[in-house]
């Protein structure tokens, strides 16, 4: 007897746990954020150990997708866990996202509800509410760790300023309250937000600032693999090294050129949508073309339009076509060797009856295409996998490979061919006119 899945949900081919790819999910491990976690625990240690009458503040600053929320929530989760197991004194952990709770009153109401208090929407002033909530926590002889996320919004309002003031002056404002308070305040634009806040608040807030830098390609690779291997969000066999490199290179921040967004949320999103596309086509594996489609759909801020391609000089187009043709030959490959590109380029030129440029100029043209965001290059890998021979040319960096990560190849090939043919034929006409004159 064999099982039939008729009438049942089919098992997914690639995605094993969708929830673990959502941006709210807080993963078990956070590669490359150990320093930020350690620093926070160090600043918060007195509060966590139950000391009263202390206020510890730490500020997180960094661009979108750099792990600020994930780190804060991980710390909140661990502290709660330890308290539940009796390893540390009881502590209240409250996570407040200012996108959702925009006023002083709403923020304190959320903290109150995290304490299990049911607070009416009316009848309290926000000051009374603060006293009530902090009074409640301190009578329970608890400390509190409060995470104030997306605080940029609060900083820009008068009400937000007052909120920070209450936090920073708990002991002066609420003398009868006896508690240790830890505050993690998260900003995306720290300098801009601090400029909005009152000087007195800033000086009492600005304890420690922990920076969250954009992730590099290598760091994003580790983050993506952790989601696959440690978390089991995606079937490991469905993803190749090249796919992960491709996504990480496209999204990763490059400190040398100061380009790339370095946003982990974006990288995970590209992986997720690529997996969905592959599943939609009933494949067992994600292919580079899935990534190109997803990236081209505008998940990244700068996506490439047709005009960027058609406006290229002729030999850049021929070169890009050569790279496209090579990548089309092997669907599972994301990168091709530069030596092969040179040979293919000469071939393409010959087919169009165009004299190829000397190969020594090719690398410079590849760099130009890279600057335009049309190709991506990698170096440092000993040999391209699956290849027995490496073709090298003097003047071309050994071990360098080139790929196209942001445009679907079938689309690109068509645009390039049409545009090259048009350009050559119009040039032919001009020549013809010259001759008849
Ligand atoms: N070091 C990491 N390891 C694993 N996953 C990470 C890491 N950093 C970020 N992520 C994941 O990337 C996504 C974005 O991270 P997070 O929400 O923490 O960013 P953020 O800095 O708070 O961004 P924003 O300013 O937009 O709120 C989340 O899904 C998170 O799980
Ligand atoms: Mg966040």
Ends: how far apart? 83 Å
Query: In percent terms, what proportion of residues is strand?
Result: 5-15%
Q: How many domain modules?
A: 3
CA-atom Rg in angstroms: 28 Å
Topology:
Blueprint: H1 34-48, E1 55-62, H2 68-84, E2 91-97, H3 104-114, H4 126-139, E3 143-149, H5 152-155, H6 158-168, H7 170-173, E4 181-187, H8 190-196, H9 199-205, E5 208-212, H10 217-230, H11 241-251, H12 264-280, H13 288-299, H14 306-310, H15 314-329, E6 335-337, H16 338-351, H17 362-371, E7 376-378, E8 401-403, H18 409-436
Helix pairs in contact: 1-2, 3-4, 6-9, 10-11, 11-12, 12-13, 15-16, 15-17, 15-18
The structure holds adenosine-5'-triphosphate and magnesium ion (MG).
Adenosine-5'-triphosphate binds next to helix 2, helix 10 and helix 12.
Function: Involved in regulation of DNA replication.
Protein name: ORC1-type DNA replication protein
InterPro entries: AAA_22, Cdc6_C, Cdc6_lid, ORC1/CDC6, Orc1/Cdc6_arc, P-loop_NTPase, WH-like_DNA-bd_sf, WH_DNA-bd_sf
